[in-house]
Specification:
Distance between the termini: 89 Å
Strand order of the largest sheet: 2-3-9-8-5-11-10
Radius of gyration: 30 Å
Structural class: alpha+beta
Shape: globular
Helix content: 25-40%
Strand content: 5-15%
Length: 438
């Protein structure tokens, strides 16, 4: 057999189908198939149930009122298919607008705050002036490149721009455009040392989210009870307004303020390492409200969260005693959170008039409803000991057990314990020990 015959034979073997393995041998592919046999099979669509194709309204920020109404109609059909029973709040006055109030939408309010009704692009001089600024900030080059472009002789004059470089454009945006609240710096004194905290007014942040015209078609003002049966025995929890907290709180609030609108305040914290060297960290605190559906809150493109504050990240190295160091860290955290959230106490009880993006005025009660954080933040916020559950009284060595009985921590008992600090040191320490907190 010469070389040409050998090559022809190899080509013929490549064209033929590979031989199947013998029955008494297992291939690697079979082993892999057996390894993933636990995965459930894909369920086939039931032809008896008509399918509804629903475009996600959260994916399009430019949805108008008609699109929102069609989406709501399609969602109602889906609820009917899934046999979901929706029970509205019994008092129809809850979440109702304030009557005889002047209705002024967000665009009209924005125009009045600018102070130039004739120029809709104010504080920019023209539409081109505004569009160039929009391009420079959203999809343009760097600030240095933009300044170099405007420094070319005649460019700024021929385009009739109200700014000649990036710095002047930033001044217009920061000083002349109405926006979200500005940061302020305050000092917190703990253990004889002052620490700087940067934060915004919590009430102004809530108003900024509540009055945002992007959320006006999706805001929720009253609680609902969702269940999967007609007898309302199996509850369905899909969003904050379907939970028990909003329903029960609305009932308590209606006893004194009928027709009130609850604004659930959600606080998020997460200490973040900024650099990989010298251990530089930041401690941001974010805020959002439960009136915005979770499908919107979870999408960063909607900007439904506001950076509320930056907490101090000091290590308190001047405190050498370990017990004092731990107490000082906890005291600093709670002192900063108390300073930021203190305006919620009066506003949550008395309420305040707030205008949504469509100009409708309601008497709103901003209430601290939820805290979101990982385990170290939960331990810090609840003042429990490390390795203990922040929610229940299970011992640390039985946290993985699913049969051990437990009880949820009593918030009222913990608040009563903290109130004993004015009684005396020994009484306070003993009360904290009995309540299971630091």
């Amino acid at each position: 057999m010469d070389m040409q015959d050998l090559e022809d034979g190899l080509l013929q073997l490549e064209d033929e189908e590979p031989l199947a393995p013998l029955d008494d041998t297992s291939s690697n592919e079979e082993d892999a198939a057996e390894e993933y046999e636990w995965e459930p099979a894909v369920q086939e669509n039931n032809s008896d149930i008509p399918s509804i194709e629903l475009d996600d309204p959260m994916d399009n920020n430019d949805s108008n009122g008609a699109d929102h109404e069609s989406c709501q109609h399609a969602e109602c059909q889906i609820f009917e298919q899934d046999r979901v029973t929706i029970v509205p709040y019994p008092d129809s006055r809850a979440g109702k607008p304030i009557t005889h109030a002047k209705v002024q939408d967000a665009n009209t309010t924005y125009g009045s705050s600018i102070g130039n009704a004739e120029n809709p692009y104010s504080p920019f001089s023209s539409q081109m002036d505004w569009e160039i600024a929009q391009w420079a900030k959203l999809c343009g080059p760097s600030s240095t490149a933009f300044s170099d472009l405007l420094s070319i002789r005649g460019v700024s004059e021929h385009l009739d721009l109200s700014y000649k470089n990036s710095r002047e454009l930033n001044v217009i945006i920061d000083k002349q455009l109405p926006g979200r609240p500005t940061f302020c710096r305050k000092q917190i004194i703990v253990a004889g040392e002052a620490f700087d905290i940067y934060y915004q007014d919590v009430l102004e942040c809530i108003k900024a989210l509540y009055s945002d015209p992007d959320f006006v078609d999706y805001l929720v003002f009253t609680p609902e009870c969702h269940s999967t049966d007609d007898n309302e025995m199996v509850r369905l929890y899909s969003d904050m307004h379907t939970g028990k907290w909003w329903w029960n709180t609305q009932k308590k609030l209606d006893k004194q303020w009928p027709g009130a609108t609850i604004v659930p305040v959600i606080i998020l914290t997460d200490k973040t390492q900024v650099t990989m060297f010298r251990n530089k960290t930041a401690y941001p605190v974010y805020l959002t409200i439960g009136n915005i559906p979770k499908d919107i809150r979870h999408k960063p493109s909607w900007r439904a969260h506001i950076l509320l504050a930056y907490l101090p990240t000091t290590h308190l190295k001047h405190i050498t005693n370990k017990a004092s160091h731990r107490r000082s860290v906890v005291n600093l955290y709670h002192a900063c959170m108390a300073r930021m959230l203190s305006p919620l106490e009066k506003a949550g009880f008395d309420g305040l008039a707030m205008c949504s993006g469509d100009g409708i005025l309601r008497r709103c009660h901003p209430l601290f409803a939820c805290f979101i954080g990982d385990y170290p933040e939960q331990v810090l916020a609840t003042a429990v000991k490390t390795m203990e559950c922040p929610k229940c009284d299970l011992p640390p060595d039985e946290l993985e057990s699913s049969t051990t009985p437990f009880e949820i921590r009593d918030l009222h008992a913990i608040l009563d314990t903290l109130a004993t600090i004015d009684v005396g040191d020994l009484e306070f320490v003993q009360a904290c020990c009995n309540a299971g907190i630091k």
